[in-house]
């Protein structure tokens, strides 16, 4: 388990820090039965495949790259089969403040499951969650957080878990934005995904978030098929009883698809290095280095959260989406850094006029 | 590791039994520098997408199914995104006699690596391999076999391993057929893969064989992209030294993608149940049951090795590709069984006139 322990610790420790902001901002999620349909992207003007990107060097760099590597007469031409584009999810394709949205899911699950677990009233870390008692929850540490994840993500079949996620994502709302979480995807990134696919790139999500938390809705929201959604995972086991096969989710870590785990996940699921990768934090640095090692000309994109009005502004010192070491390396190596404030006309699809 | 131990034992024990036939039939592989290009399939007549299948109930069942589920006016219509087709490799897409071809690779690797491992001359199980000493090799048991696999498949980077496999597959020859291994794929199955893709099915390999043993050549041979090739795997670890990222292959089992491991692999890599699955042995039974559990109408295909003249004839008692319990279940449940002798006009692409 050597490969997993380090990223897992980093991941969980990071979460413990940010959990501090969690319960204070938690509000009751409202039930909404008529799910809004989120378009994969707004119609694209023929003249401009990236209409929500301001004209400037970032947009130009992206389009110059795509035009160069898809031009058969270019020395930098990349065959279609090698046009692999990988994107982080939290903070790159959708927001991640005040905490990774999957943690609102976990907290909501503890509360929803509490009736079937009367013992949780007196058992940590669940007691603290149920009582919104942050100081006590913090004292449970990494072990307590892992207990919450496993209690809310394991123990059910894969089919059951998918139904639970679908129900939650259709009804839950972001505590500050008062919108469904899937409304909080970035319009410019939806356009970028589409633009790459129009140019025969295969788009993948490579996220620290749970693979089976993302797959139930990523297809519709991002236009990325389930088998191209890569994330952290727990182990599973196949059972066959009374002629019925099921796969159960076990309370054991499989892959932590963050930091060093991202190239490992890319190798496992894709089997070739990306030529285009997008991220927003230090957790994506290894993926971008892996992309940079491609023999084909590659494009490394960092989304910088610079917009305190329309989204959130944070980087080096933020416990969620820490962008520090990677910000230095991106600058040193001349990777592209998109400023949300300066490069994006709108942030969310619902802002498009 | 509970989920992996059982399939691993079954897999290795099966291999130990068949290893008996290995060294007796081994011949020196010849070097061939000009790799032949293997067409994904012969051109398909507009009137008949499966020209190498004899007209009969098997071919009709396949085509009736595809026509029904792709007809938007049918009650059995399946949306494109759910058209997942999974195929075993050994014995389903290419031959597997006298032993899984990957084992010829492992044996060849032991011999190729022997110069760098002078200690192997006096160390089992390598000594037995180098001396073609079958009785002694058999006595090394499961542990010895695992040692051979790990010594030949781990310890190098993923890039290095890919180059080794590419070199071997381009030069090695089957000991009896005297052909490159990639010539020994089944022409009717190439046509079936193409036919499904023409009807917007996404085709996957789900094999007990090594994922990184298949990916270097499956794309060209089967027209299946690397990220749709699923197989058994070992763990990997990411390293970053002197500004260069590499992924190393570790001597630790990750997934044994056989029997109970096949639905687990399908869930991990694809995230939805197949609607079409093809196999040839008891090792595929769990995959076909998983497919049969799909809410959409599904198609379960077994390839039965009935042709002792053109290929090999074996089923219930064969240690490679044992087709016993699954043969009974396929008959009971009315799954489709293709007889190589009766249903296939030709076996290999080079036989097509």
TrEMBL record, chains A, B:
Top-level lineage group: Bacteria
Gene Ontology molecular-function annotations: hydrolase activity
InterPro entries recorded: HAD-like_SerB (IPR050582), HAD-like_sf (IPR036412), HAD_sf (IPR023214)
UniProt-listed Gene3D superfamilies: HAD superfamily/HAD-like (3.40.50.1000)
Enzyme category, top tier: hydrolase
Entry cofactors: Mg(2+)
Catalytic activity: O-phospho-D-serine + H2O = D-serine + phosphate; O-phospho-L-serine + H2O = L-serine + phosphate
PROSITE patterns per the UniProt record, alphabetical: PROKAR_LIPOPROTEIN (PS51257)
Alphabetic keyword roster: Amino-acid biosynthesis, Hydrolase, Magnesium, Metal-binding, Serine biosynthesis
Pathway noted in the entry: Amino-acid biosynthesis; L-serine biosynthesis; L-serine from 3-phospho-D-glycerate: step 3/3
Entry EC no(s): 3.1.3.3
PANTHER family with a match to the protein in the record: PHOSPHOSERINE PHOSPHATASE
Name by which UniProt lists this protein: phosphoserine phosphatase
Organism this protein belongs to: Galbibacter pacificus
């Amino acid at each position: 388990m050597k490969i997993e322990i380090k990223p897992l610790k980093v991941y969980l420790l990071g979460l413990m820090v940010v959990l501090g902001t969690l319960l204070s901002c938690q509000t009751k999620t409202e039930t909404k039965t008529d799910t809004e349909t989120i378009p994969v992207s707004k119609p694209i003007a023929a003249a401009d495949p990236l209409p929500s990107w301001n004209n400037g060097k970032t947009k130009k760099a992206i389009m110059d790259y795509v035009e160069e590597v898809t031009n058969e007469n270019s020395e930098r031409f990349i065959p279609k089969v090698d046009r692999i584009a990988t994107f982080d999810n939290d903070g790159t394709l959708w927001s991640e403040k005040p905490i990774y949205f999957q943690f609102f899911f976990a907290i909501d699950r503890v509360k929803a499951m509490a009736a079937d677990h009367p013992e949780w009233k007196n058992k940590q870390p669940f007691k603290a969650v149920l009582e919104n008692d942050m100081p006590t929850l913090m004292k449970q540490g990494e072990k307590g957080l892992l207990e919450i994840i496993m209690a809310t993500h394991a123990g059910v079949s894969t089919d059951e878990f998918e139904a639970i996620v679908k129900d939650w994502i259709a009804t839950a709302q972001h505590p500050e934005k008062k919108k469904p979480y899937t409304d909080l995807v970035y319009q410019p990134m939806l356009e970028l995904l589409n633009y790459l696919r129009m140019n025969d790139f295969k788009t993948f999500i490579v996220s620290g978030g749970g693979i089976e938390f993302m797959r139930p809705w990523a297809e519709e929201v991002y236009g990325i098929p389930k088998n191209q959604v890569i994330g952290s995972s727990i182990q599973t086991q196949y059972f066959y009883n009374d002629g019925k096969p099921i796969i159960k989710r076990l309370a054991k870590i499989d892959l932590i698809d963050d930091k060093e785990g991202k190239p490992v996940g890319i190798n496992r699921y894709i089997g070739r290095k990306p030529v285009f990768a997008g991220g927003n934090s230090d957790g994506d640095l290894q993926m971008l280095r892996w992309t940079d090692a491609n023999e084909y000309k590659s494009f490394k994109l960092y989304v910088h959260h610079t917009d305190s009005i329309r989204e959130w502004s944070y980087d080096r010192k933020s416990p969620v989406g820490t962008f520090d070491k990677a910000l230095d390396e991106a600058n040193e190596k001349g990777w592209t850094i998109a400023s949300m404030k300066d490069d994006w006309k709108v942030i969310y699809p619902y802002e498009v006029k």
